[in-house]
Amino acid sequence: MATKHEQIIRHIMSLDVGHKISVRQIAKELSVSDGTAYRAIKEAENQGLVSTIERVGTIRIERKEKEHFKRLTFAEVINVVDGQVLGGRGGLHKTLNKFVIGAMQLEAMMRYTDADSLLIVGNRVKAHELAIKAGAAVLITGGFDTNEHIKKLADDKNLPIMSTSYDTFTVAEMINRAIYDQMIKKEIVFVSDIYTPYDEVHHLYNSDTVEDWYKLNELTSHTRFPVIDDASKVSGMVTSKDVVGIPGETLIEKVMTKNPFAVQAKTSLAYVAHLMVWEGIEVVPVVDPSHELEGLVSRQDVLKALNEMQRQPQVGETIHDVISRGLEAIDGEPTVFETDVTPQMTNQLGTLSNGVLTTLVTEASARLLLHLKKGNMVVESLNIYFIEPVQMDSHLIIKPELLDAGRLYAKINIEIFNGRKLVCKGMLMAQLMDR
């Protein structure tokens, strides 16, 4: 039987896109408490089913596929520019394909204003009307309003017409920044991108027995199962090691590992990878904020995702990307690297920042391990025990050296030279993720 939380999520999924949702409304319709309704709506927001807009409320939106670039919805544009909706609230869930700045003659402006685009324009009422009729949303800058008949037209066509106090140039910069930030976020892999969802996960209950474990093992060939209570909350994990030699009538809760490590859907892949190698875990339950089981993520899932990430094209550039791109192997010496210190890599004093230095050390170490076919690494500890200031435009030589390595760990010594002068020495300990 589905929990109240699951019933609310299913109810939200059944609503039409653009439908407005409130805690009281959900609580009344499904006979649940306000607290239960609030937590379920927040979970729906995490799943991309609804969006909460200041001064507008929470509305049902189209769920976007993770593997595609996430376009901004008009609802998100409102939040970005701190604006207000004048009309066409029913279209806030629609996505922005492009925006046009209306700083030209009316006829020329309309040549560039297509359906599903956004016209950014000042107090030009005729432009507002023509854009809505062409199937475009309108963002009015400078804090201006528009005519009532245009608001009604926007309502009829479900196309938002919005207003913001910022000027046109500032608004364009804010929207560009938001789009770019989302491009960067696309590169960050979360548990929600890779985990096996609840309806595909085999699990046991506290009241089940060791004999039930053997039946599930025979059915699935799996050896690790999460254990949940009557409220679907994770209470333990049970593996083949836990049941060996145990009588079949023994309750699972007597042999399981209680309070296992668990993660939430918004946990990053990097954290899960570190947790698995650090704790030697093969499978981690995925839970919601109330600790109810949502799915499982395995070491195989993590390794597959790490390999996929290395093949993805860059779609948004972080400072880490800038640093890594400038780090190149020296001809004839594939494990010795060089880079130039650019202005983006310096602190307010014009010298190489500590954060960038750490990135150079870890990136060079990771490349060394990949060259030696040791696999991916997760940094366990990094000690910089000698450092001198490095000025802008310096040319650095980075020499990582593998001192010791086992099946699951590596110890690397790193030296960094500016010309012939040693400017940094460090020691890195890493856990290895076998490919």
Structure description:
Residues 256-314 form the CBS domain. This is Putative transcriptional regulator. It comes from Pseudogracilibacillus auburnensis. InterPro entries: CBS_dom, CBS_dom_sf, Diverse_CBS-Domain, DRTGG, HotDog_dom_sf, Ser_kin/Pase_Hpr-like_N_sf, Thioestr_dom, WH-like_DNA-bd_sf. With 435 residues, this protein is of the alpha+beta class. It folds into four domains: 4-60, Arc Repressor Mutant, subunit A (Orthogonal Bundle), CATH 1.10.10; 74-184, HprK N-terminal domain-like (Udp-n-acetylmuramoylalanyl-d-glutamate--2,6- Diaminopimelate Ligase, Chain: A, domain 1); 192-307, CBS-domain, CATH 3.10.580.10; 317-433, Thiol Ester Dehydrase, Chain A (Roll). It contains 16 helices and 22 strands. It has a six-stranded antiparallel sheet with strand order 17-18-20-21-22-19. The chain has a five-stranded mixed sheet with strand order 4-8-7-6-5, with helices on both faces. It is flat and about 75 Å long. The two termini are 40 Å apart. Residues 65-69 and 311-316 have low confidence and may be disordered.
List keywords for this structure.
435 residues; Udp-n-acetylmuramoylalanyl-d-glutamate--2,6- Diaminopimelate Ligase, Chain: A, domain 1; CBS-domain; 4 domains; six-stranded antiparallel sheet; five-stranded mixed sheet
